[in-house]
């Protein structure tokens, strides 16, 4: 009997682990980025020369590789055009740059997935070289640059995201003004330029998701929680009085509990729970095993009734979480009703957010989004 129960519990633990984590591999890492927009060169300028605010045009093309779902690298090429505004003297300058930048997926670092699966945020910074050309000078100014910026993302599909980027570029050793005049004193980071672009990220690869939108759970934390759960079950099983051998004096000890009693105890101790994705009311696919166990018990015990207790994680307002937990429990109730269990035997309890679960841990929040059962 102990072997049967332990096998059942271990299978349930593995099911929960598969249901609540995403693998560290299995996501795309390469992407192509392009965009266009406006700029504003801030300094240096010759007296009487200026651009419009904002000024057209900016073009940017890049290739990005993510080392994991939080950090990566990208190489990009940029083009800027600077022309005079109406009350300025005439000039026409071009600015070309290449940069190698580090990228951080701020959306994953700040756990955007707890409130949205559509919006993302990237940070980027790096160094490169630039060249400034102007119709006012025959010389080409070779410049070093430092670039830093943020990129907002709106996921349109698993292959494409709409982006909006704002970047600041600091130029080192810039010996010409943006209007083309030679100044020859461009030591340090003397030039400053602002760029704003709108564009697209196109994700490459054979997997369904890109690293930008992949959430990786902490497998070790989940395993530790499940191992603790199994150890607790094992401890309870050891406390069940085993049937002793009939001694020669024909003394008989207390009888061993039946299968029904063990299953009821496991249900009431929350070893069978139905889990949900964030902000969803439909059970995840692997939770059907728990529903099947509860359904089988109810069919075999027609006099038993059941409380279905719904929970949400602590993200969001209390009244919304109460409605969400109620909807989850009602959906599980509907599944049992369609399987032939009378509605009168099923009672829904909406417990709202599970405050016993750590709010700041994604792994803990996955365990909080559930429906548990109490057999009566």
What is the residue-mean pLDDT, rounded to a whole number? 84
- What portion of residues belong to β-strands? 35-45%
The total of helices stands at 7
| Proportion of residues in helical segments | 25-40%
Structural domain tally? 2
Distance between the termini: 24 Å
Task: Give the biggest beta sheet.
Answer: 8 strands, antiparallel, barrel
The protein's oligomeric status is: single chain
Low-confidence stretches: 1-25, 218-223, 240-257
Q: Notable features of this structure?
A:
4-stranded mixed beta sheet; 37% strand; rod-shaped; Porin; 2 domains; 60s Ribosomal Protein L30, Chain: A; 8-stranded antiparallel β-barrel; 376 residues; disordered N terminus; alpha+beta
Structural features, described:
- This protein has 376 residues and is α+β, with helices and mostly antiparallel strands.
- It folds into 2 domains: 2-21 and 231-240 and 256-375, 60s Ribosomal Protein L30, Chain: A, CATH 3.30.1330; 30-213, Porin (Beta Barrel).
- It contains 7 helices and 12 strands.
- It has helices at residues 2-20, 106-109, 219-239, 259-268, 288-300, 318-338, 362-368, and strands spanning 30-43, 55-66, 71-83, 92-105, 119-134, 137-155, 160-172, 189-204, 274-275, 306-312, 346-353, 370-375.
- The strands form 2 sheets. Strands 1-2-3-4-5-6-7-8 form an 8-stranded antiparallel β-barrel. Strands 9-12-10-11 form a 4-stranded mixed beta sheet, sandwiched between helices.
- α1 packs antiparallel against α3 (219-239).
- The protein is rod-shaped, with a radius of gyration of 31 Å.
- The relative contact order is 0.14.
